[in-house]
# Entry
Amino acid sequence: MEFKSKIKTIEWVDTYSKMVDQTVIPYEYKFVNITSGEDMFNAIRNMIVRGAPAIGIAGAHGVILFAQEGAEKFDTREEFVNWLIEKAENMKTSRPTAVNLMWAVQKQIEVINNSKSDIKGIIEELKTNAIKLENEDIEINKKIGDYGAEVVPKGATILTHCNAGALATVGYGTALGVVRSAFAKDNTVQVFADETRPRQQGARITTFELAMDGIPVTLITDGMCSYFMKKGMIDMVVVGADRIAANGDTANKIGTYTVAIAAKYHNVPFYIAAPLSTIDTSIKTGDEIVIEERSREEVTHINGKIICAPEVNVINPGFDVTPHELIAGIITEKGILRPDYNKSIAEAFS
Ligand code: MRU
# Structure
């Protein structure tokens, strides 16, 4: 049986990008239409859309939006192309850590560079490519889900951190894609979701989307994972990724590394679920991954209310890097990559 998720997070519609506004979940489930390149840059930066594969698609849409604007501005193809590539390169900087953003925008730049068409034709080719990337994202997630489901024990409790679900992709999800595929085979599978401070993607988004799809989920705060592992209540961990180095070191939402250490100590297998587009073979290790620094308000405030001494010093890295030694496998659309990752990752790309 195939699991049908009801969620489509982002899609191109005629002349604009339609996306779920993730800043208001769980209070509201509403869509916003992004109609300019600059608005897309800000939608990514301000996390109206978030999650590595979803921001990749958003970046690809942003290039189309700029192309539409450029068509109004420039008379010559050359001026149009030069301006558009500059805008596309800048779109890659809207967030620094998730490599899918750079990857998908680069796919659009390749379309522009390889095109033989006039301005109108380039815009059509960019739209076709973006829709292809959207469809592929869902197909890839289903493959990840199916490969991952093979290593989920019967009746398993799966711990996840942040949101690597349908709402972090076009649909279905990576880590939660594994959950969806496992649940389709065995409806006694359940999820423990870490709250995921400071932005609470686990509490706000993971519990919301699993509840929407009728998959049992228990919310815990970030510090509780080792408590439940010690009690034998967690059978495996599956999380997503924002960037994976050639040696398997993996950047994901801040707090993931702590979960991985706890899992190793308690002999709980810790898996990453991610498409190959999240693997950055240009970097050897996780030390080369740029970690996004986010605002102090994310830490000092909850729902607009201050929760600490007003002048307290705050550091707010958005991601951490889990060393490859703590990772039991990287679940991709080409199967589960196992250590030695330098070898298995290189093979996956060959
Ligand atoms: O800051 P966010 O919400 O964009 O971070 C998201 C994550 O860390 C996800 O786990 C990751 O992007 C994988 S999404 C399939």
